[in-house]
Design goal:
Elements (H helix, E strand, L loop, with lengths): L1 H32 L21 H9 L2 H32 L5 H13 L2 H14 L7 H9 L1 H16 L2 H9 L4 H12 L1 H16 L3 H6 L8 H5 L11 H32 L4
Helix pairs in contact: 1-13, 2-13, 3-6, 3-7, 3-10, 4-7, 6-7, 7-10, 10-13
């Protein structure tokens, strides 16, 4: 039995190690080539850089306003996430607890937003933003995660959570004289911090990686976000400067990786919680 268990453990860890290599190697390849020159990137793969060109990381700030684009992404991600969680918590609580005409129909309409790709709605949104003079600003990038599919997903997840909260808590709060707004802000939100943080994490990661939205709504280089800026590292002939793209991508991925490693348990819980009654 001990021999069989030892063999099982060896095979198990070998398989896990191979899976880890498959997922880690692309990032390692990117980080390694961010320190190579452009002629060395597509040569024989190596575990360490050949040239150690730290100047690549300096040049990305000289080719375009990368620092400004970095701050644009942070601002859009933070504001979009805050708006997403605020609106989703309000709508999720309304669908779970409040009784009003057409609630079921509106909830079904909300669910349809989960199945509707952004490509379907982005053209009418473009004309709407153009009518209010918001194109070529960061405003559409902040509003989209609040009111489109990501916002609908957060609202659905929070609605599922609020349904599980015992009604006795609300009844006790009403006996103490709290109105619905007081119940929401003083009772419901404090006990929903884990689910709210899960929704915020998923929304943040979604907003950080948006590409199509800034491509449509933003035209000034100074207002680019990181996903769009990464595709703008080209030479005078329009060919990609791969070494600079690798360096810029490495810098843009690091905050998300750190964010994910710190909150990975909450991200996993978010996916489980969204399917719970």
């Amino acid at each position: 039995m001990k021999t069989n268990k030892l063999i099982y453990n060896i095979v198990y860890y070998i398989v896990i190690a191979l899976i880890v290599v498959v997922f880690v190697y692309p990032f390692w390849w990117m980080a390694t080539n961010s320190l190579n020159n452009i002629n060395e990137i597509f040569g024989r793969p190596t575990l360490l850089p050949k040239s150690w060109m730290w100047s690549n990381y300096v040049e990305i700030f000289q080719v375009q306003p990368f620092a400004r684009q970095y701050m644009n992404t942070i601002a859009v991600a933070l504001l979009g996430t805050l708006g997403n969680v605020l609106i989703a918590s309000l709508s999720g609580y309304a669908f779970a607890r409040l009784r009003f005409p057409g609630r079921s129909a509106l909830f079904i309409l909300l669910l349809t937003a989960l199945m509707m790709p952004i490509e379907v709605t982005i053209v009418p949104m473009y004309f709407m933003m153009n009518d209010i003079g918001a194109n070529d600003t960061l405003v559409p990038l902040i509003l989209i995660p609040i009111f489109c599919s990501q916002g609908a997903f957060s609202a659905f997840m929070l609605r599922q959570h609020f349904i599980t909260v015992p009604k006795e808590l609300e009844e006790a709060a009403r006996l103490d004289g709290l109105r619905p707004t007081g119940i929401f802000f003083r009772i419901m939100l404090p006990i929903s911090v884990p689910v709210l943080s899960s929704a915020a994490i998923l929304a943040f990661l979604s907003v950080w990686n948006m590409y199509l939205e800034p491509l449509i709504f933003v035209s000034s280089v100074e207002k680019y976000t990181l996903p769009l800026a990464l595709s703008n590292f080209n030479d005078t002939y329009g060919l990609p400067q791969w070494n600079l793209q690798m360096a810029a991508t490495t810098l843009s991925v690091i905050p998300v990786m750190v964010f994910y490693l710190i909150f990975q348990n909450k991200i996993s819980n978010a996916m489980v919680t969204s399917g719970m009654k």
